[in-house]
Design brief:
heterodimer, A: mainly alpha, two-stranded antiparallel ribbon, two-stranded antiparallel sheet, 25 helices, 4% strand, B: mainly alpha, 11 helices
Chain lengths: 673, 318
């Protein structure tokens, strides 16, 4: 182990995962296969995660690299691990460890294990390979590998019409993304074909092309991460997969896309220009707001989580946009702050989103329901899952003292540094971005009050919910592990920020000041400006709650009586009278829905004397789908119908067609010179 | 400043907010009643109410989960911690660096998050209506508040409340357009966050108009006492926040001798009295608005806060 360079060890882990995947094809239907596959995935991911963390802590200046005689013959397959890769590798493998642990328990309920088990380790291997790749060909190959493996997992329950549609949309969008990345790498490689990352870094990209590369990178990685308007596949595909795979796709695979974006823009594309921030900030802020608004309107628990992923990706891109703006203007300290915020949020989102998807999976197992309207009262029947889901909800709502708050606090601090930027475009754009960021955060809290409150609190809305049982211990252990990490990262953010420092140093050329001094407060710039101490806040909350509880129980009364609900004197026995997910969202739909979704409410009242019930109909439109994707699909269809005629020509016409094309191409070649 | 001083100021601040907050609530009630030519409850009635409630047995609905019983403590604790970090009579709070203004707002957000969950826990329609409307109000008020914080932070160069207050005390502030906008926006947000007229009516018992009261409808006994106490604390917190940023005169600076601190306490009490009077007069003069008008009301605060921030980005002097 000591003698092995980290890159070799990591590649062995990838190879081991591939072997497990291959073995699972043979044994997939056996009862014990689950133990073998998830157990091995767990071990291998844990090893890989340890190597990555060790590399991150040691932070050697030079990465560890290797060239294998695979792939394109003249460059081989280049692999390399540097601190940036090590950080993302750690995030991915941590998520993989949790998902494998969860899969050990959750996998028992899988109706078609032979469709999940082979692809699960292969998917993990694919994500690891993307991070390790150090040339364009290997990167794209791994990227496609990851996409296809996850596509196969999305199609696990392929008899479901909805899942088939999800898979179709996903594969189309994934192909689009790869195409964009291919073009981006092509432009960066230049006419001499320097396809290794080292070559791209060395010769740089002409400034005229940098904008084009940025656009392709946004398109390619954004389609995988779920940037609006490239997000349409995400809320379909992520929920369709089994829950631990949903957690991986949402919590981890989107981070691979973020990695790709950071790698291309900050590392390969050369010096950062300030104007890159404008498209990135715009895309990020639209994504964050639209994502969370959509999440608020969903009745399907897993789909709401998927939309919330889109929101968080938006937040990360906003932080990256700020980093561009600062970096391009030479404001090094501020750039380091924004980049730290982005990377911290990457870690945080992978923790709490996996936790929440595991919770949704536990609910799905216990009740067979994803629709919130059929759940309710689960807190009494699944207390552990409920508590852990609550921790995830508090964390993702950016409430102190959990981790979501720490990273969003850093983002807000970065925004507060931006008046010093010289460009007017940024001076006008960034306050608006800040406002939308605050709005998205507040909406996220509402969204998770709704998700947790409707699913876990109240009275059961269906027989399935009232018969629910707590899930197995392994699933709970996986969730508990993530919840503890959420709490630790929240109360001890200083350690996380210091661990991120070498990565930030590598990417932006400078780092935030050392944080693990002076009571572990985090101080972005100077203590006179701002500081936050999660540990102390946590301690204060716990101690003042204990003081209050102690004082009241000792000095006043600790008697308790159970009685029927009061409900203003008219308790209704039927759980139908409770608020539903739709009714909870109604005020917010009235405020924001008209603009964002063209939401309309129509009330159909029966005529007087008619005893039939009145009906309220709500119509909403997915404007991105209707105004971007449907026209494109219609255009493609129309073109296909036209081109279809080409298949029924006579031989004479085919020959003249071929001749015409030949002449045309020769003319092009001649005029090119 | 010595550690002992710091600790004693911090502890006396925590005690002070606890001691004064029911008085502020009682004062507003009394003043409102007198403005309506009613006798009104005695000033100390809120204290009696709290003690009476705390002594009673708590009645909890059968469908409630264990969260329902814990939430009052969480709500009280987070509100208390937040209130303890807003300078009332002195700026030298020992732990002011542990949470800046953004964190204080987020702490109040935590309290509201849990309270909204409590409203949904029993599974009654009124609880749901309260939580749902609270969520709407919060999603509009919170960004407005963040924008106000941005404005203040960009003027004072800090989000630490003690430093902001110190900066405002210094002579170089002067009248600024952005400060005025922030003040109006902060008052609007404070009204909304505390459930005062015209957004919500703390005295209402008409079910369909309730927001905050509907959420806590199922609470009784000590749980209700804690929640009532937290509402009082929150009112005091917002008053102290407005006072410490916009009328910081009388705040004892760090390291000041004891009598300055005592004068600070007296001045703070006087500020509370004035704020209570203004709130009572305002509430008496205005009618409650429809729930969906609240969006426009808070939208105005959001726009003001946003414009204030934008002005600060565009110009140093505005």
């Amino acid at each position: 182990m000591v003698a092995l360079p980290p890159i070799v060890a990591n590649l062995w882990c990838v190879a081991a995962l591939l072997v497990i995947g291959a073995a699972a094809v043979a044994i997939g239907k056996r009862n014990w296969a689950r133990w073998l596959v998830y157990g091995c995935s767990l071990t291998v991911s844990a090893v890989s995660c340890t190597i990555a963390v060790a590399h991150l802590i040691a932070a050697p200046a030079a990465g560890s690299e290797i060239v294998l005689p695979l792939g394109l013959p003249w460059i081989g397959a280049n692999f390399r691990i540097d601190v940036l890769a090590a950080f993302f590798l750690a995030v991915i493998d941590l998520g993989a460890v949790a998902a494998s642990l969860y899969g050990l328990g959750y996998g028992r309920h899988e109706s078609a294990p032979e469709r999940v088990l082979p692809f699960f380790p292969v998917f993990l291997a694919g994500m690891n390979m993307v991070i390790l790749a150090a040339d364009a060909f290997t990167f794209l190959f791994a990227w496609e590998f990851m996409s296809l493996a996850s596509w196969a997992l999305v199609m696990t329950h392929h008899r479901d019409e909805e899942n088939r549609r999800a898979g179709y949309v996903y594969i189309v969008m994934a192909s689009l993304g790869t195409l964009a990345l291919l073009l981006a790498f092509g432009l960066m490689a230049g006419p001499d074909g320097g396809y290794t990352f080292a070559a791209m870094r060395a010769h740089g990209t002409p400034p005229g092309l940098a904008g084009l590369v940025l656009a392709f990178a946004l398109l390619g990685t954004g389609s995988k991460a779920g940037l609006v308007p490239l997000h349409v596949w995400l809320p379909l595909a992520h929920p369709a997969a089994p829950s631990h795979v949903s957690a991986l796709m949402s919590g981890v695979m989107t981070k691979v896309a973020i990695y790709g974006f950071i790698r291309i823009t900050f590392d390969l594309l050369g010096p950062v220009s300030w104007w890159w921030s404008v498209p990135v900030l715009l895309a990020g802020v639209v994504t964050a707001t639209l994502g969370v608004l959509s999440a608020l309107m969903q009745n399907d628990l897993k789909r709401a989580l998927a939309y919330s992923t889109i929101e968080n990706i938006g937040l990360i891109f906003v932080a990256l946009g700020l980093a561009f703006a600062f970096q391009g203007n030479g404001m090094k300290a501020a750039a380091a702050l924004a980049m730290t915020a982005a990377l911290f949020h990457v870690l945080n989102h992978s923790l709490f989103k996996s936790l929440l998807f595991f919770g949704a999976g536990a609910v799905l197992n216990a009740t067979g329901e994803r629709r919130m309207e059929k759940l309710g009262g689960l807190q009494n029947r699944m207390p552990a899952t409920g508590l852990l889901f609550l921790i995830g909800s508090v964390a993702i709502s950016a409430l102190p003292p959990l981790n979501g708050f720490a990273s969003e606090w850093l983002m807000l601090q970065a925004i507060l540094l931006s008046p010093d930027l010289p460009q007017w475009a940024l001076k006008l754009l960034i306050p608006a971005v800040g406002a939308m960021l605050a709005l998205a955060t507040a909406l996220a809290a509402a969204c998770f009050v709704r998700a947790f409150g409707i699913s876990f609190l109240g009275r059961p809305r269906s027989a399935a919910a009232s018969d629910a049982h707590e899930v197995d211990r392994l699933s709970i252990a996986a969730m508990a592990m993530l919840a503890v990490l959420c709490l630790l990262a929240g109360v001890l953010p200083a350690f996380v920020i210091d661990a991120l420092a070498p990565v930030v140093q590598a990417v932006t050329g400078t780092r935030m000041p050392v944080q693990t001094v002076a009571w572990l407060s985090i101080v972005p710039i100077a203590e006179s400006r701002s500081s936050y101490n999660g540990l102390l806040v946590f301690f204060f909350i716990v101690s003042s709650a204990s003081i209050a509880a102690f004082a009241i129980h000792r000095l006043a009364s600790d008697r308790l009586r159970r009685a029927p609900a009061w409900d203003c004197g008219f308790p209704d026995g039927s759980p139908v009278t409770q608020y539903t997910a739709d009714s909870f969202a109604q005020p917010l739909r009235r405020v924001f829905g008209g603009f964002a979704f063209r939401a309309r409410e129509e009330v159909h009242m029966p005529p007087p004397g008619d005893g039939s019930p009145a009906r309220l109909t709500v119509t909403m439109h997915d404007l991105v789908w209707e105004f971007i994707y449907e026209p494109i699909a219609r255009l493609v269809n129309a073109l296909a119908v036209r081109l279809n005629h080409l298949q029924f020509l006579t031989i004479r016409r085919y020959l003249s067609l071929v001749f015409g094309v030949l002449v045309f191409l020769l003319l092009v070649l001649a005029s090119w010179g | 400043m010595g550690l002992i001083d710091g600790i004693s100021i911090q502890l006396s601040q925590m005690a002070l907010v606890l001691a004064l907050s029911p008085l502020l609530t009682g004062l507003v009630r009394k003043l409102k009643a007198r403005l309506l030519l009613r006798q009104g409850p005695p000033l100390l009635q809120p204290y009696r109410d709290l003690i009476r409630l705390a002594r009673k047995e708590a009645v909890v609905a059968e469908s409630a989960s264990w969260l329902f019983r814990i939430i009052p403590y969480i709500v009280f604790a987070t509100t208390w911690v937040a209130a303890a970090l807003v300078p009332t009579f002195a700026t030298g709070l020992l732990f002011s660096w542990s949470a800046d203004l953004i964190a204080i707002i987020a702490l109040l957000g935590s309290a509201r998050f849990f309270l909204a969950l409590a409203g949904m826990d029993v599974g009654t329609s009124f609880g749901g209506i309260g939580s749902s409307r609270e969520a709407m109000i919060a999603t509009l008020a919170e960004p407005a508040l963040i924008m106000i914080v941005f404005t203040l932070a960009l003027i004072a160069g800090s989000t630490q409340l003690s430093n902001v207050a110190g900066f405002m005390l210094s002579t170089g502030v002067g009248l600024r357009v952005s400060l005025g906008m922030a003040l109006i926006a902060l008052i609007i947000v404070a009204i909304a966050e505390n459930g005062r007229i015209p957004v919500d009516n703390p005295a209402t018992h008409l079910e369909l108009t309730m927001v905050h009261e509907a959420m806590v409808l199922e609470y009784s006994g000590r749980h209700l006492a804690l929640i009532e106490f937290s509402s009082s604390l929150k009112l005091l917190l917002y008053t102290a926040l407005i006072a410490c940023v916009f009328v910081p005169w009388g705040l004892a600076p760090a390291g000041a001798p004891l009598h300055v601190h005592l004068i600070g306490v007296v001045i703070f009490a006087a500020k509370l009295g004035v704020a209570g009077l203004m709130l009572a007069v305002f509430e008496t003069m205005i009618a409650k608005m429809r729930v969906f008008r609240v969006a426009d009301f808070l939208g105005a605060a959001f726009m003001l806060g946003f414009l204030g921030t934008l002005l600060r980005f565009v110009s140093r002097s505005l």
